[in-house]
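Quick one, T. Sequence first:
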Amino acid sequence: MIKFRTISHILKIYVLPEVKKRIENGKIKRTDLPLEIHHFRLIQRKLPSGNILPIVEINEEVKLRIKVKVKRSVSAGEPLTLKDIYPEKCCICPPVYNEKPMAYFLCQSLFCDYFLFFDFEPNLTNITKEELKDIEIPYPILVFINNKNFKKTVRPLDKIKILSDKNWPPAPGYYPQVLLELHNDQTIIDSPNFLEIVSSAYGTSYWDKRITFWQETNFFPNRIQYLKRVLDAHYNKDYIASIYVLVPQFEGIIRDYLLECGRTPAERYQEIIQDFKKLILSRNILMFPQKLFEAIFNYLENGSFWKRTDTVSDPATTINRHGIAHGIFTGFECKEISLKYLILLDSLFLVLLHDKMMTNKI
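Structure tokens:
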């Protein structure tokens, strides 16, 4: 909660006003909105007067300086590889102006999560130069290098599309293990073992963290008791209970949020999803991949969830609200379909989390 709430405050106070200013002066074209932000850095330059000048850097503008410990002698300007350094000894260096370190807050994305780094000590009035030199903030360089290579090699958004096409809801929890398994062998998605691979990624620890977060932030007001019961039932293999309690919640959650944002929900489901999509993509920035959002909206709007029941050949593997809500399907309740509805809930959570960050509601 602290991480997302902190990001939300920084976005509201510094990043969103900076993006708005750039739009107004033409540095960002309206046709480029929403702007997908991979990382940003807030720098606080202390002026001789004692006042603070905030500087916001976005995406490629962020130029990091990393301090490393080398395994061999290195000449100035010589390129280094991971073999030449001790990755666990890497530290991030603060930005410098006039040879003086500046206070900063850095946010770097990792698919659908973030790493935060900050040091505001240079703005303290009583700190000495020697004390500033001793400040070292570890930087997990291997995490970011591996993430970069993973993105280039595995192409996670492409793999999520494959999952969606096979009626597995597009969601963040597949990262990284499920996506890696699918990259190594695309035929595994049709294997009986695939259910256990996904189930392992979406295990009890994953959902326990989600429930804790939802409770701390009052994320799903008036619905948390249903969601806790759904998870308890799923853990206890009571798939009849988990499915029948969860399925009616989706439309209600979206309607509640539209009302919270001052929008009157339409009567028809597809119009509700279209309004919801317009709301989310109306923000000037996106902190999660836009292609993932589009995959989620496409699944909600055009997938099997709201299709006619006669289009569903196997209700034990295919998500479909009508067949359950109207009692048309029977005998379909199983681990796979229960898990798929839970994953769809996780997709919806991600979309709402992002918008609550944009509007400072976390």
